[in-house]
Amino acid sequence: MSSALFSTSWYRVAKLKPKLRSQAQVYRHLYRGERWYVIQDLASGRFMRINPAAYRVVALMDGIRTLENIWQNACLTLGDEAPTQDEILQLLSQLHQSNVLLSDRKPDLEELNQRSGRVKKMKLKQYISNPLSLKVPLYDPDKLLNLMVGWVPSWGKKLLLLGWLALMVWGGLLVAYYWEALTEDMISRVFTPENVLLLWFIFPIVKLIHEFGHGLMIKLLGGQCHEMGVMFLALMPIPYLDASYAMSLRHKGQRMLIGMGGMMLELAVAVVAIALWREASPGLTKAILYQTIMLAGMTTLIFNINPLLRFDGYYILADWLEIPSLGKKANQYWGYLTSYYLFGVRRGLEPLPLSKGEAPWLICFGLASFGYRMVIAGAIIFTVAAQFFFVGVLLACWAGYSMLVLPIVKGLQHLFFSPTLRGHRGRAVGLVGLLVGGVLLVLGMLPVGSSTLTEGVIWMPEQSRVVAPMPCFGERVVATPGAQVQAGELLLVCDDVQIRSRQTQLLARQTELENRLELAHTDPSKVTSQIVRLEWEQVVKELHDNSQRLQQLKMYAAHAGRFAMPSPQDFVGRYITRGDLLGYVLDPARYSLVTVVPQGAVDLVSNRTVGVALRSVDQVQRLIPARIIRQVPAASQDLPSMALSLQGGGEIGLDPGAGGQAGGQAQAIVSLFQFELAFEQSIRPQTLGSRLYVRFEHTPEPLLMQWYRSLRQTFLKRFAV
């Protein structure tokens, strides 16, 4: 309540005889045990909420009593709780703006036109101020909803909730049974180019069903709905339905049911889609059903039920907490706390009326919702800009203005010109300047450690691989697979008939030429002797080369270790091409780790790494120190192991068009740099090919430098600018 009981402008309205318009409807609500009144304009669907003291004044507005009589009556009835004249003037202004106030004065047509223009400008300002969603009303769905609800008999309406719960139980059992089939390779199945096109067509249909869920719940509770249209969210047309009728309902459970109506119908669609999906044959129909499951199920669980976004979960939470306008009230409360505790303002600062237990919810919600909105806005902008760069830049400027520039400008105006801060302006400016300067100093000067996280696999040196040096046929396995072998020990023997035949021919030819040389010594002509010697030297050279090739058919252990060979029983008689991997000589002491790093982080890893730590996937609690011993200087899409890919449990997506999975080397979607790491201690993983988490610790630097680098790399990666 204001400290001044009287107003200097009271004489202008004291003789006014106000009353509510005929289309104004008043509802009584209870919020946290306190009584409040909601006034609805049935013509426009707009609402306003007033406390009991204000309702006492409104209830006396009958078109007969003057405003002076009404105020005096309120003072006698309410005592110390009576509103001041300024508060009654403010109440009249709010009723007037809500278009529910009528007086004994003749209507001013010019003022009505001005009011209509202000309403249009206000709506346009709301659309412009939100760059991520624009609403365009198109249709009055009330008659259609009445027709749809009319199909349900009165006794069936009472069983709808039980039927929905039974459907959800059945759906839960289906999801549990088909969980592996539903989630297997989910990312690549959803985001292939063909399936993304399906998403664009299915998403508006699923959201239309969602909005009809709200409307049907309103009708089942006896309400009305007169507005439906399209909302453009990140340039995608999405249906919306005006469910503001819920504000008129007294019981919060009914309001929560209207908020949940869309999600309930959407989840029912997801369950039906799962039932049809399991019976469908592979093809377009099965793909459409799978996308419907993902949209109707995942978007409900991730977005709609999330209270930090202004979707269904937000209104359900506000009704459950019994805090109307939760987001707006949280922002107002943060403003009050800042002025009262930080700036030291006491006089002229109206405390926000709070019920018991509201303050912690407002503080937490204000912080969480602001941060989450910024993250979501940034994600949408980058997603749009990746496809439509010019539109994305416009959206970024638009969002930056409305979410950063405009609030900062309003905050500065309040800081330098608000009469509330009179007498405290110096302290407020100093504290804000000190706070901003301190934050910039910490972010720009204080070094903070940073790291790059990636994954790697246990690797072996090339010497540990037993590889066929040439095409041949397997002859025999000399060493026992699984047994320990020594360096230089014979492991495998291959056979090549052509090489052996060639060896026999060359030996015979060598013998022949040696005999001819002996005969040539008795010949006085030296020409014949020289010709035979040249032929002999050529045969000896070919024999030496062929002997080396014959020797290569025997494969020896390059170092000591355990000889491992897949399917040794298939070796004899098998045709082997050059480069075929035949087995391994395993020595854990020689194991290393190969990891891949994206291009954006390769400079940090190469030049700013001060330490490397590893954690095994199956033993995350154990820390294994390591060091970099080798770096491949060029980027490549070749993936050293399928264990690093999404299909193998890793985080790297494979290029579906590369065909690397058909027997060749797997190809990643993006180019990567390979690093080889050596273990610093004797404790090391023993399983070849197992996956490890890798953490490269970098030289500490200020956060502003780290953020700038990340932003710069993001722009280079996505937009090449």
Shape: elongated
**Radius of gyration of CA atoms, rounded to a whole number:** 40 Å
Spans of at least 5 consecutive residues with low confidence? none
Distance between the termini: 56 Å
How would a textbook summarize the main sheet? 6 strands, antiparallel, barrel
Number of strands: 23
Helix- and strand-based class?
alpha+beta
How many helices? The count is 21
Beta-strand percentage range:
15-25%
Strand order of the largest sheet: 9-18-22-20-19-23
How many domains, in number, for the residues?
5
Average predicted confidence as pLDDT: 82
- How helix-rich are the residues, as a percent range? 40-55%
Task: Give the oligomeric state of the chains in this entry, treating copies of one chain as homo and distinct chains as hetero.
Answer: single chain
Q: What does this molecule look like?
A:
There is one protein chain. The chain is of the alpha+beta class and 721 residues long. It has five domains: 10-124, Outer Surface Protein A, domain 3 (Alpha-Beta Complex), CATH 3.90.930; 132-322, no CATH class; 323-445, no CATH class; 454-460 and 591-719, no CATH class; 462-584, no CATH class. It has 21 helices and 23 strands. The chain has a six-stranded antiparallel barrel with strand order 9-18-22-20-19-23. The protein has a four-stranded antiparallel beta sheet with strand order 10-17-15-12, with no helix packed on it. Strands 14-13-11-16 form a four-stranded antiparallel beta sheet. The longest helix has 30 residues, at 358-387. The model has no long low-confidence stretch (mean pLDDT 82).
